[in-house]
Amino acid sequence: MLAIAGPNLPLDLLAAAGRFAGAVSFDPERDTPRADDWLESKFAPWAFPVLEAWAEDEYDQFEQVLFSRADDTSQRLYYYICELQRRGQIGGPEPLILDIAKIPRAASRDRMITKLRELGEHLGVSADALESAIVETNSQRAAKTPKAGDPICLLTGTAPPDERLHDRVRICGFAPTGATLVEEWLDPGAIVEEATGDPYAALGTQLHDRQRGPRSFADPGAMLAEAISGSGAKAVVLWRIEEDEAQCWHLPAEREMLEIAGIPSLVLTRRDWLARDGARDEIESFLKEVQP
Amino acid sequence: MSQSVNQRSRKTLACTAEATSFQKSFGKELKRRVVDEKEPYAIVQADTPHELFHAMDIPIITNQWWSAYISAKQLSGRYFNAMVEKGFPANSCKYCSLGLACTLADDPETAPWGGLPKPSVLVARLTCDCIQHVFGMWAKELDSEFYPMEAPAWEHKEVDWFAHSKDAWERVYQPDRIEQMVAEMEDLIALLEERTGRKFDMAKLERLMEKINEQEGYIWEAAKAIGEARPCPVSIADQMPNVMIPQWHRGSDWAVAHAKKFRDEVFDRIEKGLGASNNEKLRLMWIGAGVWHDPGFYQALEEKMGAVFVWSMYMPFAGPAYIRDLKGKPVEALASRVASMNETLHLPPWMNGWMTSEAQRCGIDAAVILLPPDNRLSQSGTNLTAISLEEAGVPVLRIDADMVDADIWDHDRMVGMVEDFLREKGLA
Question: What is the CA radius of gyration of chain A?
């Protein structure tokens, strides 16, 4: 079996491999004494329980785990795991990395496609099998429809470890929209072009062009505006954690956009990923004041 | 916090004063070209192909050098505060963003040179998640263009890369990574030609690369001699300027001549048995960027404890990171130099493999590692390196501080930490 630990990965290709097990599972609340010795403090918090689980042989059912260069923690963790394995300090599956290249330039797109082909060869996926998987995954992409009902609160910023923030939003009579970390990893992205004659190029182009994630070149204010209008949100909670190095640079543009949009919003920065810092109560207080 | 920052360091070499004097003149000359005469110029990260700009005679301002320049003028606190006032979180990465902070502050009265004018382009390799955002915003603020370069994944791992980087660079640095960087450099050259009207000349680049090999060869010879000599003839307070300043001008006649002069002065001191300290008892290794706002830190324990910082990355890095057999392929050789400059200093197995080897080569008794609290990239690799060093018998002290943010640095406390650590380890 094959699992992933990072965003912006080629789910169509992994499906075509026929042994995709989804994202590695982890307990965000667990103690991580071994990982604490190896990782520095600015790693995204998910890296600690993942590495601890790896060191405790909890991923031994996987043959491979795929990491992503579209996220700094994911790519850095790949190197650490390779080294810890080389030193005999941990065992477990074969770590792989997909060299996601996102610079809007032909050389980067071409590299993305080349590296995707190499991964496909490593996993034994033929072009025909990939084409079929693209068609199947596209049908799943198209099936995603927004649910009608409660007014929507957009949860954006850092992806939380689970639905602990979403649950508090629901209590307040709002329907939360916004991915958890694993949901973000398992987001297949936009429709991939079908029947091009070169499914690797089609999927590689989609990966290269994806707008979400820390290495996106998209305008953050415009991205937030699109998320608000796309979801029909009546309120926004912008939540970022202390360790988030990339998105914190978006904050002024996002604040400006929220002001222009005139939508009720709560901005929480430098917060605790496990929300032990009162963030849930702050969200509840905020939403109680919002008239849907 | 009681601060006592900006302690002066004591320099022992005559060529150190020459290097700093040259850099001061160069600063004035750069300002004349960029600010007064409005020549086209570029803002670039340290790990980008400066050689292309040198070969095309395009002035560059290196972000890290500019940060150090601002920091040395005790302006970092002012500009970081200005950034917070603009709505950025206070924990944003400091090292790469001080130049942006200075631009955002938009205060010509205090800014060095009155602030930077519009560059032709800004160039950075994407070695972390934040640099593209910093440079993207900086380009927007300066009404210029950001030219990002990929930092491709490195799957071919050689722990002793430093032993093969000169002659087997195609294998060590992975052929497809070199190919990627060559493609990007070709695009960059086209952009520079179009923006500046200056032409790229391959023969000129090749000559420059040869001269850089000569320059870095002198530095590497001196580094090897320092590793073997007892006592250490020059402390890192002398090493850093004599390596870094010529490296900003790599391949120029001055830089090559200065590197040779530095090597000769090091050799001369070794021959005469002169040490950086008269009291060398412990040889220390400094891992991390230089603490630019407090250079006196490195010599604070020489007299009291005989603890001499003999190693920092800048000087020994000259050999494995810079010297390349050109093989008639100067662009590819340059790509191999640039493609992994950051990675070898911040990722396992390259970082820990090299630094452990260096500690053994230089007879290091203990190491001090800088852990900037708000910078994942600068922290990266340090824990595994500390473990590798400790396994090799080198005790390690990790200190939480920032190389440019003077506000979280306390000279006396930091010196006290090193002193306590050395005593605790039974080394003093």
Answer: 20
